[in-house]
Specification:
Elements (H helix, E strand, L loop, with lengths): L10 H13 L3 E9 L2 E9 L6 E5 L2 E6 L7 E7 L4 E11 L2 E8 L2 E2 H11 E8 L2 E8 L4 E4 L2 E2 L3 E5 L2 E8 L2 E9 L7 E7 L2 E3 L5
Antiparallel strand pairs: 1-2, 2-3, 3-4, 5-6, 6-7, 7-8, 9-10, 10-11, 11-12, 13-14, 14-15, 15-16, 16-17
């Protein structure tokens, strides 16, 4: 760029990119929820004087209600590619103080996270400069990578099962082997290009 050249940024571009943030004057809660198709951000606005309720999922407005005379209640919506059911409960604590709780699939966020730790495995890795988040749903053996359900091929092997798939031309395999201990159950291990990937904690 030659010296003296000016760079102009279109105000409309900047305004549209951040428009939902400018409007969030009544933002009362933000949650991050890890689902198989990715980590989703849920934001909630509650105008206690206007009765306004707005729910954003990943920056996109999902629900808008104006002039709600009843300030407590519940807002239900879906999150992610799998349309996971979610609800925000609005409860009066005292006077004009309110408590906001998020439910995922009918469970409190805490219960959902605890259950998810038992029913899924998550690995985060970098291949060729790109980050990948791989999730195994143990109950269905579905494999997700960066929000996409993967085509897999399963096979029985001598000590358990192997689920094969490909990520960016890299061969991947999730090995399922019995731990030999009843409480631990089956151990799932991700192997990419013959290298074991450590499990991530979300």
């Amino acid at each position: 760029m030659a010296s003296g050249e000016e760079i102009t940024v279109c105000d409309d571009e900047v305004r549209s990119r951040y428009s939902h943030l400018e409007k969030m004057t009544d933002l009362v809660a933000v949650w991050e929820v890890a689902l198989s198709d990715g980590v989703h951000k849920i934001e909630f606005e509650h105008g206690t004087t206007s009765g306004k309720r707005v729910v954003y999922v990943d920056g996109k407005e999902e629900i808008r209600r104006e002039w709600m005379f009843k300030l407590v209640g519940k807002e239900t919506f879906t999150v992610g590619a799998t349309k996971t059911k979610a609800a925000i409960n609005i409860d009066a604590v005292s006077g004009f103080a309110y408590e906001y709780t998020l439910e995922i699939n009918g469970k409190s966020l805490k219960q959902y996270i605890e259950n998810r730790l038992k029913t899924t495995n998550t690995w985060i890795l970098n291949l060729g400069g790109t980050d990948y988040r791989i999730v195994l749903e143990k109950d269905t053996m579905d494999v997700w990578c960066n929000g996409q359900k993967m085509e897999t091929a399963g096979e029985f092997v001598e000590d358990g099962t192997e689920t094969h798939f490909t990520v960016a031309d890299h061969s991947c395999c999730i090995k399922a082997v019995s731990s030999g201990k009843r409480k631990e159950g089956i151990i799932h291990t991700l192997i990419v290009d013959n290298r074991e990937i450590p499990e991530a904690v979300e």
